[in-house]
Amino acid sequence: MRRPGTGGCNTSDNYPDGPDTMTHDVNTAATDTQMSRRGSDLLGVVYLATAGVAMTAWIGGLIWGGAALVIWLIS
Predict the structure, then answer these.
(1) Using the 8-state DSSP alphabet, how is residue 8 labeled?
(2) What is the CA radius of gyration of the chain?
(3) Which of 15, 53, 60, 66 gets the highest tally of CB atoms within 10 A of its CB?
């Protein structure tokens, strides 16, 4: 049975071990989120570096091809 004025949320119903369990779960979730965030950031940096290398190679190929075309036309 719920007590009036609790807004329908009784911590003893949700966490039979008491409010410390709830705090522990929140802290664990925050730590997991931070670790996941670091992994996501690292993966994002890897993707960004890969895109940068691919774009540099593409632009270099275009410049090389353009220079080769101009040299061929001049000769």
Answers:
(1) T
(2) 29
(3) 15
